[in-house]
Write a structure and sequence with these properties.
484 residues, alpha+beta, 13 helices, elongated
Amino acid sequence: MIQPHGVLLVVDNKNYAIVQVSENAEPVFKTSPQSLIGSIFFDHINANEKQIISERLIGIAEEKIPVTVTIKDQTYLALILQQPSYLIIELEQIETSKEENSFVSIYQDLKFIIQQIEKADSIAGVSEITSKALKRFSGFDKVMIYQFDKDWNGTVLAEAKEDGMESFNGLVFPASDIPKQAREMYKKNAYRLIPNINYAPTKLYPVINSITNAFTNLTDTNLRSVVAVHLEYLRNMNVVASMSTRILKDGELWGLIACHHRTPKYLSYQACSVFELLSGIIGSKISALQNKQEFDATAQLYLTLNKIAETLYKSETLVGGLFAQKEELLELLNADGFALSINNELRAFGQVPENNQLEELIFWLQNKNVSKIYHQPSISSVFQNAKAYAQQVSGLVALPIQPDKGNYLLAFRKEANQKINWSGNPNEALQFEANKKDYHPRSSFKIWQETVQNTSFPWKQEELEIAETFRNVLIEYALHNPTS
């Protein structure tokens, strides 16, 4: 089924005969859906439009092909999606009176927003600029920029909204709000528009596609109907219309532009295309900012690593070389303390567990056959004995030097004591009925605060990469100085 703000056709790609049509097609074609079946789609449009479509259908295109067509003296935007044996054509009416001056207007708005985004020097700045600019451009009551974390929970980085609307700025939405299958859809579809959650779904006629003898897969269409649980979710938010646009970074889903409106709201294909274009520009800008941050941080870490390595190779022992540069070592590993176990000698500096606890931890690492760099922000969650000192030090990065001999460098981080402001209780994100089959989304989005204990801030990827390089330095030193 589809949303009724457009008409959907399924057309045989060999002879362009219509094999399925949405049941709301009669106002467009001035004839019943039943009588459209078997008719040739090209017979309903003019010859010039037929020629344009034929030229653009050469080969199999992965993206939807937009074409303007005229049916019964009305102008429509046709989005054509090519499948191996058929075409899916989505029709949405164009109001020509509004389109005459739209290009200049949209181009001016777009250019201004892009200029602002390019000037931003932080992800927070990009998010703030984008949310305000897109609210002004689109007229939505609320526009949010939403970033996913490694567990697919989403944090609202910026928000522009009308007075009286509930604020979600800074809140975290649980991963279950946008499940995996929905996230995968955003990799193929730039945006998802729901003009009115109270719509009546429109069926396809006939139900079965005569070419495939199966249901037609509408996953990649703009008009596809929305699952009831998501409509209920929006209703619980007091939202009547919504639009979500992906933000990709390096080909992966980084976040979303989420738009809400308290009354029905339709956005034209032209306006939706602005969102799509800006999402790509935002993704590129975010990628550039993050790459610069990582490059600058990595460059500084390498300066510290080179200094430590130079001093180490001038030292007679590994212990002497490292403990002569205790502060530099903490800076390199971004840690609050470290311990070195080498040739049955245990030395420590900074915030670390007691010696007997360190020996237990090293024995545990050996039993786990940890022979590569190992990192864990909550060591007590995987090693029971670590609970005794979890409030003192919670995170661990272990650099095995000669693990069979118990030679390790261990770096520790203290407990971060993080407070997460969830948008509603994440444990109640889905509420199942007594039959254990039917379920509903949570009804409250009020702040629900969680305190994360016995956990440090995790190590960043660039920090782990430098730690691995440093481990290689330690291994090389140990191999050339076996008794030191």
